[in-house]
Write a structure and sequence with these properties.
Layout: H1 2-12, E1 15-18, E2 42-45, E3 50-51, H2 60-73, E4 77-79, H3 98-103, E5 108-117, E6 120-129, E7 134-135, E8 140-145, H4 149-165, E9 173-181, E10 188-195, E11 202-203, E12 211-216, E13 222-227, E14 234-239, E15 245-248, E16 255-261, E17 267-274, E18 277-284, E19 290-292, E20 300-305, E21 311-316, E22 323-328, E23 335-336, E24 343-349, E25 355-362, E26 365-372, E27 379-380, E28 387-392, E29 398-404, E30 410-416, E31 423-425, E32 430-439
Helix pairs in contact: 2-4
């Protein structure tokens, strides 16, 4: 927790300001359509950023590498490597020799510059449509501390991604997860948080109590998770700024688990098991008032709100096997939406509101899939010995989940909603239960 106290004030200083640049005319703006998936990635070039002073020289190549890793990691772009470049960028304001970039088949060129004064850093960048020979939109500048240099690389990546695809980015975001160590019969599971690319891991618990199923608040300032500190599952709310922990939803003789925030961050929905029944409850975090949403002898768990907060999707075995249901956020009649073969679990509503991601088990295999909110157009994105627990990127284009090979340790993977670009997220050790947070301010 100590490191969080040190980091947050620094991050609060990060800001974005417009960089002075003329708005060029754009006859045919460079644009990558990603709605139906991209088979042929767009070739891009990201030369090392230009150092505008001696302090900036330390970060010129590192910043460019962060941008390249983010953009190529989407599967939408491929890098034309520096050793193939004919032209060299030695001045941020010098003209671009577009013919040299066309000669090596570059379509989008990203140039940048970095300067450092004391502990402060400024990073500016431009995007060029090489085919038309024009700048794509205005340049931007980010300012922050040198400790935040990777965040500024992520912000540049988000801006470039948005400019070329027309979609929001997701690179400057964090993921809370469970870090696992030790033998399988005596597992140590710690609460942890990292950047979306697996960097900058911070541990949020000491491992003395097993934790599972963390979820981040819509504003990214709180985490709610299930702890076995008392021997039975209990829900804990953690404030990331203060480190304060608070048990919520606790009732005598009951177990509480599987919590998730409402879109406004003011309430939680979760499962409460008592007397053989497991039902869904909602708690107003402002006054502690609890409302029972389901009342059934079957199990109801893994709730997730729709982005507008009007509905909740959840899993239940009320039909005999685990299936996905939707009901009004205040409780009421539930409608089953999964009807394929196998069992469905852990439904999560997309931030866009158009899809629900889920875990499916069928014929000895586990899958991560997506379906429309009426249950139509089911598509399976993955298949393995064990895939489970999907979580959405802030822009609703990528799903992260836990994969575990038979007899192996769990790892975190991501996949595009088209089913392309399956990638393992590099973590410091075994990891599971990822939950993606929002874009950082």
């Amino acid at each position: 927790m100590k490191r969080i106290f040190q980091i947050l004030p620094l991050l609060a200083l990060t800001c974005m300001t417009m960089f002075v640049a003329p708005a060029p005319a754009q006859a045919q703006p460079l644009r990558l359509q990603i709605t139906e998936g991209v088979i042929d990635p767009m070739p891009i070039a990201v030369p090392a950023f230009v150092a505008e002073d001696s302090g900036g020289a330390r970060y010129t190549d590192a910043l460019a590498r962060v941008v390249v890793a983010n953009l190529t990691g989407t599967g939408l772009f491929r890098e034309v490597p520096p050793n193939a470049h004919i032209a060299r960028i030695t001045s941020f304001d010098a003209g671009i020799g577009f013919a040299d970039w066309r000669a090596v088949n570059v379509q989008a060129l990203i140039t940048g510059a970095v300067s450092v004064s004391g502990n402060r850093m400024n990073v500016k960048f431009r995007v060029y449509d090489v085919v038309s020979g024009q700048q794509l939109g205005q340049g931007l500048q980010f300012a922050g501390t040198v400790d935040d240099w990777r965040r500024m690389g992520h912000k540049v990546s988000d801006a470039v991604y948005s400019r070329i695809t027309g979609e929001d980015g997701y690179f400057d975001s964090r993921v809370v997860f469970v870090a696992e160590t030790g033998p399988r019969d005596n597992r140590n599971k710690r609460l942890a948080i990292m950047d979306q690319d697996g960097e900058n891991t911070e541990y949020l618990s000491d491992g003395r109590a097993l934790v599972i199923a963390p979820r981040m608040s819509p504003t990214g300032d709180r985490v709610v998770y299930t702890s076995y500190d008392s021997g039975s599952p209990r829900i804990v709310l953690l404030n990331l700024s203060s480190g304060q922990r608070q048990m919520v939803g606790d009732q005598p003789g009951a177990m509480t688990f599987s919590p998730r925030f409402a879109p406004d961050g003011q309430s939680l929905v979760y499962s409460l098991a008592r007397g053989g029944n497991t039902d869904l409850y909602r708690m107003d975090l402002r006054n502690g008032q609890q409302t029972q949403l389901t009342n059934s002898p079957s199990i109801a768990t893994a709730p997730s709100f729709s982005p507008d907060g009007r509905f909740i999707t959840f899993e239940s075995d009320r039909s005999g096997t685990s299936q996905i249901y939707i009901m009004p956020a205040g409780g009421g009649e539930a409608r089953r939406i999964s009807f394929g073969q196998g069992r469905y679990s852990t439904p999560v509503w997309s931030p866009r509101g158009d899809l629900i991601a889920f875990t499916k088990s069928n014929a000895g295999r586990f899958h991560i899939g997506v379906m429309r909110t009426d249950g139509s157009e089911e598509r399976l994105l993955t298949a393995s010995f064990l895939d489970e627990g999907p979580t959405w990127a802030p822009n609703g284009r990528v799903v992260m989940f836990t994969r575990e090979a038979q007899g192996g340790d769990p790892s975190i993977y991501s996949v595009d909603i088209t089913g392309r670009n399956l990638r393992r997220v590099t973590t410091q050790g075994a990891a599971s239960d990822p939950a993606w947070g929002p874009l950082r301010p």
